[in-house]
Structure formats: C-alpha cells, structure tokens
Amino acid sequence: MPSVRLKNGVRLHYEDYGDPTHPAVILIMGLGAQMTVWPDPFYYGLAQKGLRVIRFDNRDVGLSSHFDQCGNPNLLKIWLTKPFNKGALAPYTLDDMACDVVGLMKALKIKKAHIIGASMGGMIGQIIAGKHKKKVLSLTSIMSSSYNIPLSKQGLKVLFTLAKHQPKSVCKDAFIDYTVKLNQLIGSPNFPQNEQALYQQAKQNVERSLNPNGIKRQLAAIAASQNRKHLLAAIKVPTLVIHGEHDPVIPVKAGYQTAQAIKRSKLKSINGMGHDFPPELMTKLTKWIYKHVQKAQKRHLKKQMAKQNSANHLPFS
C-alpha cells in the first residue's frame, strides 16, 4: 500500500480502491484504530457500487507518522487548562488531523469528496465539513459526537474496566488480549462477534503496528479540541448520522444532538448496535451510505449543470 508525505511533514499510509474517475469517498477511522478496522465488506462494497474509496491510517497510528518525540501527554492537565491555553499543551489537535485529510486529498488530486468518519473520525469529518466546505460533497458521521468526551456512566465504567486490564509493558500478546477485551466491552449486544474472530483481528492489527502512546496523543487531541456545536451549524452539505442505540462509549444521545445541530441531516439509529462494526450490519450500512452519497452526488452534478447553463447564456458585453 502507498504512502504520501504532506506539506506539514506528516506521512500518511493509505489505500485507494476503485476507478479514479468515480466519486471519491474518504474514510476516517477513530481513536487508536488503524485503517484496517474498516470492514473489508464495507470498504470494497462501496467501491463495487461505483465509488472510489480511500482509507488511511491517521497520524500516530498504524503505518503513518508516529509522534514519539512528543512523549506521553498529561491528559488531565490538558483537559483542566483547555479554557486558558486553547489546547496548546496537546501535541496536536483534531483540527491538525482534519488538515491531514485535506492534505491527503490534495496529494491524490481530489478536489471534492464524500467524507465518512467513525467515532473520532466523525469528529474530524465534522471539522472538515465545517471549515473546509468547498472540499466536501457529503458527510456521514458514525457513532460520533459534536462535543469531545461525552461519557455516560456506562462509558466511565468501560474506561475503568479497561484501565485495570491495560498492559504495563509493550508486549504484543498482552495487547492482543487487551484489544479483544476492549472490543467485547464496547461491542454490539445484539450482534456479538465470535471471540476467535476478534482475536484474529486483534492479532492482525497489533502485528501490523503497535503504538500505545500514539493512542494517548490522539486522546489528548480530542481533549484539547473545542466543542463543535456552533461549527456544525455552518455545515451545509447533506449529512447522515448513524448511531447505535446501545453504544457504551458515546451514548446515542450524542448522535441525536449531532443531527439536531446540522440542518441538512438525517439520523439513523440502530437498535442493539454498540461502538463497533458488526458483520451482520455491514450490508445495511453500505446500502444506507451509498444511497446517501449517490443522492448528494446527483445534487452536486445538478448544481454544476445549472452553473454551466447560466454561464452559457450570459449576454455578450
């Protein structure tokens, strides 16, 4: 798989699948998750429907640039001092990660794209749609939020449980077991995944890349970033919000709030879905998102044709 070095010095590892002349879709993954977490049936399914689909490793995860020189951030200090220093203590912010995506688009010569983000990736997608409007044709925000750490009591319980099991040293086997435990805790109660399948997925990802401090730096970026409620009001592109009704990490209430804050939005909540991508739901999600992208693409082409017709009928000066 190829990689590209952006003007800001960040190297992003990506996969670009589908006809390059087809509408482009950019997939942005969540906290600590590599691009391989996007399920293949979903990724290739969108391409088979006639889309050019790009997935990539965010900075500090997978095979993209790691910011080890920035060390291990103090999350509590960043959170408590954010009102005064605007997140300056964090190695980078979600805005910086949004600029990575815009840089990737430029490197791949993509002028406009349909943005799909999951969890933290949804937060990044919201920033792109709000601040880089000319680059975005549609937005899909999956199991995400318009504010930064929307923890419920259940979410706090999950975090405390995971903290107890977090490996004390960088040992691949320990992190594989930890990842399995994580996915079981945040997974969909109505669509539980086979433990062996979870183990194989965890093994594949840990062997591909292991960067525990990168996850902490990404979490610091979330903690340091500003509330996006007002930014979402500026989003004008068609937006689809998808959220699991049994999400233990980001409560479904956050999905409703995101949809309410974006004027041109549609919400689809899924009973029994947690904070993951259950294989049983991939056909449904692919269908929903393709329909959303196709409708937005037709809207864009219609506007282009109207502008062209208007230009052709301008009187001679």
Automatic annotation (TrEMBL):
Keywords: Hydrolase. GO terms for molecular function: hydrolase activity. The keyword Hydrolase applies. The keyword Hydrolase applies. InterPro entries: AB_hydrolase, AB_hydrolase_1, AB_hydrolase_fold. Pfam families: Abhydrolase_1. Residues 23-276 form the AB hydrolase-1 domain. This is Alpha/beta hydrolase. It comes from Pseudoalteromonas spongiae.
